[in-house]
């Protein structure tokens, strides 16, 4: 079942994000990976900044999360994570499809350039990589991330 995440879910969301983000270890640049991948206060800051998290619940347990953030003329998909042991079961696809239904705006997704599995996942869901120049422009306009992360990321778009 897909449901809106609640305040009482934040610690579970935090555990899901950090469990799933372990896939980045040794893949993304060493200077961008740290443990925990996301601090609890960072997750809270993302929520305060307008990221609305939806969760996939199975047998009363949250096992995947994905956020959507309204940025005016576009929506961003943010922080898409499924527990490591439950990947490749369609949970991410269901969450993404649900979030796509929530907006009529173009959707942008930023991810690590080295996370080939994530890029394949989004392409399979109909998203397309934007050019390097467009990536630079979009990441600077819609995200608040360091220059090094901009250098090592890609952006996928539903339509612009």
Automatic annotation (TrEMBL):
<keyword id="KW-0012">Acyltransferase</keyword>
<feature type="domain" description="N-acetyltransferase">
    <location>
        <begin position="1"/>
        <end position="144"/>
    </location>
</feature>
<dbReference type="Pfam" id="PF13673">
    <property type="entry name" value="Acetyltransf_10"/>
</dbReference>
<keyword id="KW-0808">Transferase</keyword>
<dbReference type="InterPro" id="IPR000182">
    <property type="entry name" value="GNAT_dom"/>
</dbReference>
<protein>
    <recommendedName>
        <fullName>N-acetyltransferase domain-containing protein</fullName>
    </recommendedName>
</protein>
<dbReference type="InterPro" id="IPR016181">
    <property type="entry name" value="Acyl_CoA_acyltransferase"/>
</dbReference>
């Amino acid at each position: 079942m897909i449901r809106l995440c609640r305040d009482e879910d934040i610690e579970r969301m935090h555990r899901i994000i950090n469990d799933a983000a372990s896939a980045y270890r040794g893949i993304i640049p060493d200077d961008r990976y740290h443990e925990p991948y996301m601090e609890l206060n960072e997750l809270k800051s993302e929520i305060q900044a307008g990221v609305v998290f939806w969760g996939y619940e199975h047998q009363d347990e949250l096992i995947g999360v994905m956020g959507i953030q309204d940025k005016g003329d576009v929506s961003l998909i943010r922080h898409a994570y499924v527990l490591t042991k439950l990947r490749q079961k369609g949970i991410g696809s269901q969450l993404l499809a649900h979030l796509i239904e929530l907006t009529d705006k173009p959707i942008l997704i930023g991810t690590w350039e080295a996370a080939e599995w994530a890029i394949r996942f989004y392409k399979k869901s109909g998203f397309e990589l934007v050019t390097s120049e467009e990536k630079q422009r979009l990441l600077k306009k819609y995200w608040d991330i360091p220059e090094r992360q901009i250098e090592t990321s890609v952006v996928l778009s539903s339509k612009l």
